[in-house]
Amino acid sequence: QLVQRLSQGSTSRGPSASQGASLPVVAGTSGVSQRWSQTYLSEPSLLTEGGTRVWSGTEEEAEADWIYQEVFRERQHQVDFRVRRQAILDVLDYLHSKMLEPAVIAQLDVFFGEALTREDVYVIADMDQRWQPLWKSYRELEGWLKQVNAPVHIDARLRPRVFTLPKAELHIKDTKDWFLINYPELIGTSNSDSSATPTRRLAKEALKEKLDEQLGLKKAGEGDLNYVAITPQELGDNLYNQRQLHKPNVEVNERPKAEIFEIAGRRMKPPRAPALAEEMVISLLATRLAVEPRVREFVRKEFRRYCAISTYVTDGGKSMAEECAWNFRENYRAFHIVHRPWNEFGVDERGQDDPLFMDVMDLQRRGFIALEYSLILPPEDSVSSRIEHAGKCKYIVMGHDKQDIPRDRGKLLSHIGDQSFLRGADVASIEEWTWCRDLTRRLEGMARVNEVHERLKGGDKTKETVLFQCANISIGSDDLNKLICPDPIYGELLDMYCQVDTSEEEKFRIENPWNTLRKSIVRRALLEELYPTLWAEVQSDLARQAEEIICRACSANLANLVDRQPWQPWTQSKSADKDDDWKKNDWKKDDWNNKDDYWSSWDKKEAEAEEEEDPEIHDPDSKSEKAARLRGYISAFVIVPEILDNFCVVTYVNQFGDPVDARKFFTQFYQKSRIVPEKGSFEEVQANKKQEHQDIFKQMLKLYQPAVIIIPMVDQSVIRLKEGVSALVDEVHNSKNFRSKPEIIIGDPTIPRLVAFDVRCMEQGAYKDCISPLQRLALSCVRFVQDPLAEASQLWSDAMEENSLLKLRLHRLQDSLPRNRLTRTLERTLVECVGKAGIHVNRLRHTNHMLSVVKFLPGFGCQRQDLFRRCLGNAIKSRQELVERIVTTFCGVGACKTEQECAPIIANCTPFIKILPDLRDNWSARETPAFDRTRLNDSYHLWLMSMCQAAIENVSIDEVLIEGLDDPIAKAMKVFDKEKTLRDTLDNLIQGGKWDWSHVEGAEIADTLDADRLMDLFIAEVVHPFRDQRQPYAPPEGQHLFSLTVAEPAECYARGTIVYTIVKRDTEVPDDDAAAAKANVKVEVTPCGVNGSFPKQHKMGEGKGYIDGCERTFQPGEQVLARVIRTNASADRTPMILLTVDKSNEDILRNFPITKDDVRFYMPTANEDWSLKDLGVVGLDEKDELVELKRKIQRPRNIRHPNWFEQGHNEAVKLLHRSPLGHMLFRPSKRHDAIVGMLKVRSTSSTNEIVKPSECYRHFDIFEKKDAQGNGFELCSELICEGETYSDLDEIIARHMDPIMDNLKILQEHPRFGLHSTVASVTNKADVISNLEKFSKDNYRMLMYSLILHPNRPGQGMLLWTTGGMRVKEELLEVRPRGFALWGKQFEKLPQLVKWFKMTGWQEAFKRRKAFKEEWLQKEKAIKSQRGQDAMKGAKKKADVTAQDMGSGLLTPGMEFNSNPRTARPGWNVADATGGLLTPGGLQTPRGMATPARLR
Length: 1496
What we know:
The chain is an alpha+beta fold. It is about 40% helix and about 10% strand. It has 53 helices and 32 strands. A hairpin with a 4-residue loop joins strand 26 (about 1315) and strand 27. Helix 5 packs across helix 7 (about 120-145) and helix 13 (about 230-240) packs across helix 16 (about 295-305). Mean pLDDT is about 80; it is low at about 1-30, about 190-195, about 220-225, about 380-390, about 570-620 and about 1440-1495.
């Protein structure tokens, strides 16, 4: 009843709206839809005191006009304006007063007829969201207008009529800017942008001095400056009337400009210089001109006519541009755009969506390109597309008139003749040089594009060839000067603003100081205010357009994943005839419950024949199971192999989505051993275990009788696994153990993988009981096949940081979208999917994991999912029961105060509720009212009943068939089982005049009603009540399947991509068992490991013979550089990549990303010419060894280790900064073919002895001993670190790094580490040296020494010692995995080293130090040789990665940096140049010299 009361009324608006009355709004907001409240209740200024949103008739009328102008103005010829505007008002009425969501209104699209489509409803809803801040600004402006005496043209802009104009948003924005500048006191300084630029700051200062009054900008008074220029309002009048109605006062010409500004400056407090006073006047007037709405409208119109966009590559983006060019990446189109008109973005030459500007924004955000705008003058004869006249345009020098152009040409000519930059020049000269450089670059790009245009006219060359031919052509200075022209916008403003002589035919601006001042005002207004503002508007428009394109693509890709029906066993028919019957009778698939017994409808003779052939076909259990499968209740096996292990998880999930059995088998359990293993060997044990797993798998098949076996595509081994499992299934089937043979399908793990690792999902239901992500992945794969929408809905959350569905890769540019925009797009897509599928409430009662679809049920949302669960206590058999439970539940918990508050929720959700018995229920579908079985809105009830009544009365019916049925709708559902029968019946009635829609009692026929679509809708619901309208389930295929196989995005192997391959076999070389085949080369593509092949010869008939570089035999193991032509992937065979090494391949040429549209506004650099990229065997003809070495070093590594880090040095240092002490990190070197080890040995936080992050780690060079069979992508089996050999990274950590950390701890715990006292400990090098010198002078006969950490070599120690009052010596104390070393002498334990030093070492210091230095230099030379050539040779090293700062590598001890200014000296820190340690008085110091007790 609540729904009927809410739905009553005509689809046309009442008269109250046009009279400005408020539309009815349900009191309170707690009962409204969650999405409705987020849209309309988030702006407090638009709400009433009670917190509700009220729409006046004036507001809705204005919004309807605005939406029509923004969306439908270009389609005005299709439908009458009044009809479409009324339809827009109807939609707004549904959105606002009835609080319906767009998905619900879209069901009523038949009432809008041709005026609005289903998609238009969603567009209007999106525009309604944009309207809220727009109306807020309009109301704010109305309030400001009441407080000031605004000019007439400003007052006229604040009337509802403004929304009937195109671009009303810009009108509102212009008016708001006018108020912000002219009346900042109304807004306050916090909201004003008057200090954003130097011009604004000077203008603000001028206002404090009341210069606006002296200039005549206000009527408060007149001063000496009111003759400087006409007011902005007067300039607006001139532009509006296209003639100079207001002219500057000529009397000002008689007064010296300097005198006037000197007087104005003296009147200021404090007094200002005349030049500063002049600048303040210019800034104030320029700012006021820029915000004058009519001036801005004129400039905007002209700016958009001339505006063009250019991009150029930054220094950091050059390598990326080359890579994108060579690999035919789609975003290469955005790197070198040259003066492309802004309105040529968004749609390509075929009329399809073009995301080019989003590519531009993405590359700019990543720092690869810079974006700039320019003004381009089209040719005078341009009457059609701008593209057709490319090559004839000229470059507009912004802010320069005809008098400035000759001077500009002179500057440009001088600059081109001598481009040397004078470093000692003044600021003005530097600015002029920079201006000439930038102008030259832009003009050269335009000239080269013009040349491309001319060369393409001949038609004998391809666009790619011409592009790179013109990339480096030399352009003469005369040709460049011909391309520049004055600014027409600037010129027109000057003609209306300056003193002009019109006595002659052509206008002539009089040259005088005051006109020069006025030109400065206009130039500053344009260059510093208007042009930047309008460029921002153009960027905003293009960004919005590009975002819509990406959003549509993301929506389509998401729908392709989740807008799918559950898998259904169409291939399970026992005969072809029955399979055809299933395909013809869709109702038998989609709504088995609407028939008493699907199987009883078979022809008896056919059934008897099938029973004789297969007696089990009419077995009750078999029949019940098949009926359940037809309703979407699918039981399944899933087999998920572990990628890095030899095992797989086999799980059985029943038809309700509950895991029943899970096992862990060998991945190759399906294989049967062909060779009898040796008895007692490991191979025999393994073979026996595989056989055991085979037997268990067969027993599980017999026991559980799954409908389908799912194998998710995780890698290439899945294809072999499918073939093996298929053979096992055939064995079981041949032994007649299946009631129905299960089908084996390839699963899509995209969504399940996100579910398996989602934190919220891991804590819910059966996922919480899974002990590993692989088990969760297996369970999710089955549930995804059972219902893709329900499984994907679990990932959704209102909190963006917890919304795992946003992690789904739907488009390569989705990361450039605003997160809230992407969220709204995906939410709308899922709501539409729910509308197609419906919410099977009785199934949700028993299946909690499917309850997440309620998040997208109109009227509900994430926050009300638990409330909906409370409504599902018992079986729901009608809409009335559901309505009563919603009212009871919401009122019971206080979510709604009255029944009336629940009405919006009920009206939104009821058309999406699918009321059928669950498989576990014991009631019949007949107990549900017939109308409640449909997806129709309650407003259709009378219409449908009238139609069904008329159809039933005019056909002959078997009374037994409709016995007990009183409802005409129920009778029609029982009688008509085919759409054609019902349609023919209704057509006969309409043609005979016995019935039409006018016979519907109580229903008002709208003029826009589409009667045919309404009948189609009703017929479909009668014959197929609430049929699932989603697409049939389809396993992954094509590019998506290939991406899943290689676990990389599809664009990584798009056509034209350059890949490295390893030769497996040249087919021209015959095998032992076969003759030579066609001239192809079989390869393995790295790093994905997919097999591929490329031909050695050109195609037959071309007469070209062998491809260049292929007149040879390719040897196994050789590396070959090739391009991808296409990828092949299917569920029945392993993927393949078809390649080519032919640089002139036509298939590749057609896929070059630069299109016909692009080529006229694009100019690449010559080094990006993809045709110059050498293909074929790598290394044979390589001219630059550094390039090849860099390519080898930067190869992708297939190293999966928790301590492996792929990024560069600076990122590694940041990671170590956040890591605990002792953390080990491995990363690939960027300069050498080696691995860099970084061990954190010093703390960067939380201690008193913290160091900078760049000094916290010890550096290790780890070299790989190359394996003859290795490919360079896997980690080698032998790793060499500091002369020790290890087998893997874990062994290096355990046997090398951990002992070093232990020894460092031993060093710091030694009693002689630093200096200790009762007060504190001293470990600083300078302090320790100072104290040792003091102690030694006090006691000459004592050997003073101390141990500290080396300040310049992290991870090493330092021995400081002295005797006899001499200078302190510094010795490197090496910390090794097996102990310690002093001067290269190894000691297992530190006390042994100290004892040896005290007894013998200190006396041999000079000799051992000298030998150690030579040994160190030899070791350093050996390591340098082992590293090999530096791939970054000649490149500038970063300051924070030098050896001295980082302590990396082996440094010569004598060249180390000493930070103590008292002891810092070049060379070795030796005791004495003569060698030896002298004792005082010539006495020989005894061995084992004692040390003072206080230093022990």
